[in-house]
């Protein structure tokens, strides 16, 4: 298991939703294809929304840019 996967699993186990925002964003940036990147971005976005995290807006903007979310 790679380091990022281990960190994701540990953050899930700990219920560390703030860390999950960053980790899923990191996973998206390293994804091999757009579908996988948007899958991870969606997870990061949802955890950011749940936390009221300021990172939600730029994550949403990325999803909009990729046609995975509708513009406001």
Word description of this protein:
The N and C termini lie far apart (38 Å). Helix 1 packs antiparallel against helix 2 and helix 3 packs antiparallel against helix 4. The longest helix has 18 residues. With 72 residues, the protein is mainly α.
Primary descriptors:
mainly alpha, 72 residues
In this structure, how is the largest beta sheet organized?
none
Q: Which geometry do the CA atoms define?
A: flat
What is the domain tally?
A: 1
Oligomer: single chain
Strand content: under 5%
| Count of individual beta strands | 0
Low-confidence stretches: none
Our measurement of the CA-to-CA distance between the termini, rounded to an integer number of angstroms, reads 38 Å
Order of helices and strands: HHHH
Q: What class, by secondary structure content?
A: mainly alpha
Radius of gyration using CA atoms only: 12 Å
Secondary structure: elements and pairs:
Elements: H1 3-14, H2 17-29, H3 34-51, H4 56-65
Helix pairs in contact: 1-2, 2-3, 3-4
